[in-house]
């Protein structure tokens, strides 16, 4: 089967490309390398183009003739999205519209979408089910929610079938150490903790210690990137067999507080790096935990790496030995 993977040189996309390649799929990665790395693409060919370039996109679709598209290309920093919403609506929403229009033009009907728990905003109930209201509280979440609305309309109008995967907090790295997270500006807690342990940052900030949680810090559901990647392959198989659109949460269904993550990072690294407690960031929910029952039952998803120490160990191994 022939798959186009947009953003396949980035963190999550590259781990999915690795699994696709190992399983014999024919892959074309499309990435503008603004945050991705050529070295992260372990399988398939790489076309360095921007999704804003609709003509080039159309040319590659005509050349490659994919059976399905997996779409990871997006800007992902919440704080930046508040400061520069135009970038997020252009990158995440308008460029996805370009991609969907090219798919329709070339009669490609199968689409896997990299969505986010940010579409829920501050949830009314935890763990969060897929039928919870979508109330994003920042432009990043809103840019993804707009795409989910577009996908429903494209299904109704053009019979374009999709699966939208709403990620919770993705972390860790390929256990074989071939690829991992290599953002220039690390904002995720685990990566930031490990970079602080390495001395790349002077200290780690904990934003908010007055939440209504056992230790006062925010609680998040962390999922290993390879379990997430496996869910994408299962979602693709399901979509190709069933030809019906759906939405799935991807998380482990339990959370760890910021302080628990920091304590575990110090244990794994053996480094007591400096931490400073400061005020909450606006719009950070106290608790975000997925109900992923639907993915387990419908896709037969069986996570292998539901262990915070293992997640941090693989990320630390990558930080110490990374190749790009």
Folded structure, characterized:
The radius of gyration is 19 Å and the shape is globular. The chain has helices at residues 11-22, 54-64, 78-83, 85-105, 139-158, 189-197, 225-242, 258-269, 293-298, 308-321; strands at 2-6, 26-30, 45-47, 68-71, 110-116, 161-167, 169-171, 204-207, 219-220, 222-224, 246-250, 256-257, 275-278, 287-288. α8 (258-269) crosses α10. It has ten helices and 14 strands. A seven-stranded parallel β-sheet has the order 3-2-1-4-5-6-11, sandwiched between helices. Strands 12-9-14 form a three-stranded mixed β-sheet. It has a two-stranded parallel sheet with strand order 7-10. With 324 residues, the protein is of the alpha/beta class.
What is the strand content?
15-25%
**Main structural class:** alpha/beta
**Whole-Å distance between the termini?**
29 Å
CATH homologous superfamily placement of the largest domain: NAD(P)-binding Rossmann-like Domain
The CATH class of the largest domain is: Alpha Beta
Count of helices?
10
| CATH topological fold name of the largest domain | Rossmann fold
Instruction: Give, in order, the helices and strands.
Output: EHEEHEHHEHEEHEEEHEEHEEHH
Mean pLDDT: 97
How many domain units?
2
Low-confidence stretches: none
At CATH level 2, the architecture of the largest domain is: 3-Layer(aba) Sandwich
Largest sheet: 7 strands, parallel
């Amino acid at each position: 089967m022939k798959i186009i993977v947009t953003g396949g040189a980035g963190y999550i996309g590259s781990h999915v490309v690795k699994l696709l390649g190992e399983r014999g799929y024919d892959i074309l990665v499309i990435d503008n390398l603004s945050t991705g790395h050529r070295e992260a693409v372990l399988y398939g060919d790489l076309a360095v183009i921007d999704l804003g370039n609709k003509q080039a996109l159309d040319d590659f679709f005509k050349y490659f003739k994919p059976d399905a598209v997996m779409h990871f290309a997006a800007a992902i920093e919440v704080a930046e999205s508040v400061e520069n919403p135009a970038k997020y609506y252009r990158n995440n929403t308008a460029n996805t519209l370009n991609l969907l229009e090219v798919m329709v033009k070339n009669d490609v009907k199968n689409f896997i979408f990299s969505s986010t728990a940010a579409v829920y905003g501050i949830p009314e109930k935890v763990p969060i089910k897929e039928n919870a209201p979508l109330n994003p509280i920042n432009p990043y979440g809103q840019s993804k929610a707009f795409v989910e609305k577009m996908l429903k309309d494209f299904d109704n109008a053009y019979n374009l079938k999709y699966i939208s995967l709403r990620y919770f907090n993705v972390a860790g790295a390929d256990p074989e150490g071939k690829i991992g997270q290599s953002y220039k500006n690390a904002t995720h807690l685990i990566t930031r903790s490990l970079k602080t342990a390495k001395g790349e940052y002077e200290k780690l900030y904990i934003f908010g210690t007055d939440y209504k949680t056992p230790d006062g810090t925010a609680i998040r559901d962390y999922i290993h990137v390879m379990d997430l990647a496996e869910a994408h392959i299962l979602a693709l198989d399901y979509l190709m067999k069933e030809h019906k659109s759906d939405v799935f949460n991807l998380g482990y269904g339990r959370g760890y507080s910021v302080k628990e993550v920091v304590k575990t990072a110090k244990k794994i690294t053996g480094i007591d790096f400096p931490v400073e407690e400061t005020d909450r960031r606006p719009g950070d929910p106290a608790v975000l935990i997925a109900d992923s029952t639907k993915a387990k039952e419908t896709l037969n998803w069986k996570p292998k790496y539901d262990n915070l120490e293992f997640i941090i160990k693989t990320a630390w191994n990558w930080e110490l030995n990374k190749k790009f």
